[in-house]
Design goal:
Blueprint: E1 7-15, H1 22-27, E2 32-39, H2 46-52, E3 56-59, H3 65-75, E4 82-87, E5 90-91, H4 94-105, E6 113-122, E7 125-126, E8 135-142, E9 147-151, E10 154-158, E11 163-165, E12 170-172, H5 179-199, H6 204-211, H7 216-227, H8 233-243, H9 250-278, H10 280-287
Parallel strand pairs: 1-2, 1-4, 2-3, 6-11, 6-12
Antiparallel strand pairs: 4-8, 5-12, 6-7, 6-8, 9-10
Helix pairs in contact: 5-9, 6-7, 8-9, 9-10
């Protein structure tokens, strides 16, 4: 028997100093026909390893996830219109690869893309309950039928056509660089999330209506935005993760719950800072000297 036919799909993997992740990521893409690595300035061996594994490597300065993925659609020499988007700490599973093959073969032009569930892992343990599986991301898209738009620290999909849901998941090894790296990265994410909340124009009534929407992605997004308007947010976020069954994921689930509480605390600190910047009186008061001396 000859080699199996490659899946007629281009893949774009976003990287920045992902030497520890790029090899297993590319290994998981063996069934895909056309693999690209879009780097944003790595100074380790990421690009060299990617080339060794046969990926086509390009570089573009990172501004946001939405911008980077759109840039890939517009500028990379992609062999196919269907594009799978991954980050270097994510892996394609065999089941998902086969589902993608069937979806592309059945394409009749009616869909902008597919929402794919994310399987988050911590310390090698699948956070099935703590990370509220399935959480869907628009990762398989037709580059001429949709665009990515920035939202918070991530992106969302924009199209006049609908998206369908896949059953199989991709793996997300979100903590592969260690907790210190995760904390530094999420300090940046926290400010981006805070700005999104601070600038949001959606009414409270619209958010509550979204919580009861039929589509799971709409419900989850509305619940997330609504929760960011409630008091005691860090504690509520911890309770929500624990109430989702984090304890059933063992020590990894309990650790994840604590990390989500910490992340919410970061967001709240950033929101307070944005409010001070937007209120001249508060900024002037915080800038005036006090009798207690300099702050720590």
């Amino acid at each position: 028997m000859g080699a199996p036919v490659k899946i007629p799909c281009s893949v774009v993997v976003l990287t920045l100093n992902e030497q520890c992740n790029i090899r297993p990521c590319l290994e998981s893409l063996a069934a895909m026909d056309d693999v690209h690595v879009l780097d944003s300035g790595s100074v380790d061996g990421t690009c060299e390893i990617a080339r060794q594994w046969g990926a086509k490597v390009a570089t573009n300065a990172f501004r946001s996830f939405g911008d980077q993925r759109n840039w890939a659609h517009d500028h990379l020499a992609l062999n196919h219109d269907w594009v799978l988007h991954l980050d270097a700490d994510e892996r394609l599973t065999d089941a998902l690869a086969e589902e993608i093959r069937l979806a592309i073969a059945a394409d009749n032009g009616s869909l902008a893309g597919w929402l794919i569930p994310e399987m988050t892992l911590l310390n090698g343990r699948w956070l099935r309950h703590a990370a509220q599986y399935p959480r869907y991301q628009a990762r398989l898209s037709h580059r001429h039928r949709m665009r990515f738009v920035d939202h918070g620290h991530g992106q969302r999909e924009s199209s006049n056509l609908p998206f369908a849901y896949m059953q199989s998941a991709y793996e997300h090894w979100a903590f592969s660089h260690g907790i210190e790296h995760w904390l530094r990265k999420h300090a940046t994410y926290a400010m981006q999330e805070a700005r999104q909340v601070f600038e949001e124009k959606q009414s409270l009534v619209a958010l509550i209506a979204g919580v009861f929407a039929r589509e799971p992605v709409t419900r989850r997004r509305a619940l997330k935005r609504l929760a960011l308007r409630l008091p005691m947010r860090p504690t509520l976020r911890w309770l929500h993760v624990m109430g989702s069954g984090a304890w059933r994921d063992g020590a990894a689930g309990l650790q994840y719950a604590r990390m989500m509480r910490t992340f919410q605390q970061m967001i709240d600190v950033c929101m307070d800072d944005l409010r001070r910047q937007a209120t001249p009186g508060l900024m002037a008061a915080s800038a005036s000297p006090t009798r207690s001396g300099s702050s720590p």
